[in-house]
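Might I ask for a little of your time on a matter of protein folding? What I wish to show you is a protein chain and, alongside it, a tokenised description of its three-dimensional fold. I should value your view on which stretches of the chain appear to form regular backbone elements. You will find the record immediately after this paragraph:
***
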Amino acid sequence: MTFKDHDLTPPRDVAGVRYEETPFTDLGGREVPGLHAVWITLDNPSQLNSYTTDMIKGVILGMRRASNDRAAVAVVLTGSGTRAFCTGGNTAEYAEYYAGRPEEYRQYMRLFNDMVSAILACDKPVICRVNGMRIAGGQEIGMACDFSVAQDLALFGQAGPRHGSAPDGGSTDFLPLFVGIEAAMESCTLCEHWSAHKAHRLGLLTAVVPALHVDGAFVPNPMVVLDRWVEHGAIVFGEPKRGPERDEAKLLLARGAVDLSLLDREVNGLLFKLANTFPGCLSKTIESVRKHKLAHWDRNKETNRAWLGLNMMTEARAGFRAFNEGSKACREADFLLLRRRLAEGATWSDELLEEILARARGRA
């Protein structure tokens, strides 16, 4: 049979995004003829798989292409390497091009919004394979996916108010649906990272598997508390270890190597389960569950886009430049100085910007 072509453009490669058809296998590892999975990989590991403008286009095109792939069982969205799934937008591009150009950033946010919408509209189930950090915009595109399977060294969180933005690319819409208002408020405002175990406990993830391989065996993330015990009246399961326990954990971490074979096995198991359903009923069910995300996303995405564009003239301009021009010791603007100067009546100017960036540049 000769099929109609429903793609908008011919398939093409986009720098920074890999599109691959991988064999679909049963639980015994045997290939099933005529079926495959589509893997869309953010391939910018030197910058922690942060997405550039062109990479966003690659994800949009990839989701559309996978939707029309009659033999595709599902889509796996992931990142290269073992350090990061995605840490959001490319801060170098933000600082060097978009900072101070609100209309340019507004056009960029049209593309970003279309990327999130493309994930939510994909005609195949979308699995986020969390191979490492899922931060900021990475968290947002991850939550747009239907399932998230993570290796347990991964970290999750936002960057917004600490780096000059608001997590309005999806987190303020999606995160309360996953973890509730209180936990979402904590994550979105304080920008403190969650371990994979905490994220799973709060309902953000489908599954978590170990990735640290030490002396021939897999070891759960040694950097976090994995017993449900109480400290100062609070449950600390999934929270970072402190003091001597943390020092010991670092030594164990240094002895091991990251091995994502269990992550891939878990993803393949989920693919197999999804394939063993009626395809039409599966698609309708996924669309129905997605409506809860879409109700918030479609209501807010355009006004959020406009605000994020305007913010590139003030706090975003400062925050992204501080991150890009700072060092490991400090990548943040001087928040307290900024608050004090604004309280004194200062207006946003190049002089104010230079003042609050001095600390990140090591000149304070």
User: Anything to note?
Assistant: Residues 279-311 form the longest helix (33 residues). The two ends are 70 Å apart (CA to CA). The chain has a mean pLDDT of 95.
